[in-house]
Design goal:
This protein has helices at 26-35, 48-53, 57-61, 79-92, 106-110, 121-134, 153-166, 196-205, 220-226, 237-241, 249-254, 263-279, 285-291, 301-312, 320-331; strands at 15-17, 40-42, 46-47, 70-75, 96-101, 139-147, 170-178, 210-214, 232-235. By secondary structure, the protein is α/β, with parallel strands linked by helices. The protein folds into two domains: 12-254, Aldolase class I (TIM Barrel); 263-331, Up-down Bundle (Four Helix Bundle (Hemerythrin (Met), subunit A)). The termini are far apart. The model is unreliable at 1-5 (pLDDT under 50). The structure holds flavin mononucleotide. Residues 18-23, 44-45, 73, 100, 102-103, 142, 174, 189, 214-217, 235-238 line the site of flavin mononucleotide.
């Protein structure tokens, strides 16, 4: 059973920016929104249990309208809490909700969610069913090709079939196995070999399902090539570390007319958000820690970054710092 997509989500998932803890907060997301108007953006993972108990619920869920289309990523294994999170996601105006079935961190394992749930498709199906009942939002999942020794084409297909029958609409597959013991999360993103062929096989066996590829995509051309096989591509680290690399995505992937996007224009686009954040007692650094990624591989980049770090980390730093940073780039033709 595959439900209908919300109109805004339709097609936006062809290119998405991966959920990344401590990286894809709303400030990085509005930065990426200056780079691409069309890509689907994901939040960092929010734990359903934390959402239930948190006094900072509004802070956890808050996002700017401009971030849409946006998917809320949730972690959990309790159908009741996940159903509550799904209702909240709908109330807050998220475009979809995504269940994390790929995180191998010890903390996440001790909560019995993330990648370890790949060992229990029955339980995950119950979670998806509960989420499906809770709202009209599309329910999607992000998972690995396998965990530990549960790592065969048959098991992967069985897992995906069971979630599709429960109502999952799209499958974002990080093309690596996760080792739950012995590797830390960072190692689990580099040491297990990337196996795109396993995800291709899944797509070939289940052509009617929407299957997206994640893991190791570093250039727009890799993504275009992958889109010949898959329904979507998700990029994580290469988007965070090199945001300007992706300025032609709307043109290449969504057929939009070309736009001239550069670092100074992006920074100027962020100034109103920085002003708002400071007005609400936030720190300029919360945005600038992402903005420093914008300038690389050009003469003077290191000095520009160092200068911005120094000024933006000051306690009462104001948006004039951003204006100066943008002006320096404009003077250098960037
Ligand atoms: C710093 C960091 C934090 C991450 N946090 C999450 C997370 O919250 N949820 C999730 O599903 N994956 C998380 N991931 C994994 C990414 O979403 C992605 O699957 C992985 O980095 C592989 O894609 P890439 O090679 O394009 O980076 C994280 C990755 C990084 C580097």
């Amino acid at each position: 059973m595959v439900g209908k997509s919300s109109p805004i989500i339709k097609g936006s998932y062809r290119f998405s920016i991966a959920p990344m803890l401590d990286c894809t907060d709303k400030y990085f997301r509005i930065l990426m929104r200056q780079v691409t108007r069309r890509a689907l953006l994901y939040t960092e993972m929010i734990v359903a249990n934390a959402l239930h108990h948190s006094k900072k619920r509004n802070q956890l869920l808050d996002f700017y309208e401009i971030e849409k289309p946006i998917s809320l990523q949730i972690g959990g294994d309790d159908p009741k809490l996940l159903s509550e999170a799904t209702k909240l996601a709908e109330e807050w105006g998220y475009d979809e909700i995504n269940l994390n079935l790929g995180c191998p961190s010890p903390r996440v394992q001790s909560g019995n969610f993330g990648a370890c749930l790949m060992a229990d498709p029955y339980k995950v199906a119950k979670c998806i069913e509960a989420m499906k009942k809770a709202s009209d939002l599309p329910i999607t999942v992000k998972h690995r090709i396998g965990i530990d020794n549960l790592d065969s084409d048959e098991l992967l297909i069985k897992f995906v079939d069971s979630l599709a029958s429960a109502g999952a609409e799209r499958f974002i597959v990080h093309a690596r196995r996760a080792w739950l013991k012995g590797l830390n999360p960072k190692e689990n993103r580099t040491i297990p070999e990337l196996q795109y062929n396993r995800v291709s096989k899944l797509k070939k066996e289940r052509p009617q399902l929407k299957i997206e590829l994640n893991g190791g995509l570093t250039m727009p051309n890799d993504c275009l090539k992958a889109l010949e096989t898959f329904d979507g591509v998700m990029v994580g680290r290469a988007a965070y570390s090199h945001p300007l690399r992706w300025t032609k995505i709307d043109e290449f992937i969504y057929g939009e007319s070309p736009q001239k996007i550069n670092a100074s224009k992006i920074i100027r686009g962020l100034i109103p958000y920085a002003e708002n954040h400071i007005k609400n007692n936030g720190r300029l650094w919360d945005l600038c820690r992402h903005i420093i990624q914008l300038v690389e591989e050009v003469p003077g980049a290191r000095a520009w970054r160092r200068d911005l770090c120094l000024k933006a980390q000051r306690k009462n730093a104001k948006t004039i710092v951003l204006e100066e940073a943008a002006r320096q780039l404009e003077d250098a033709g960037l």
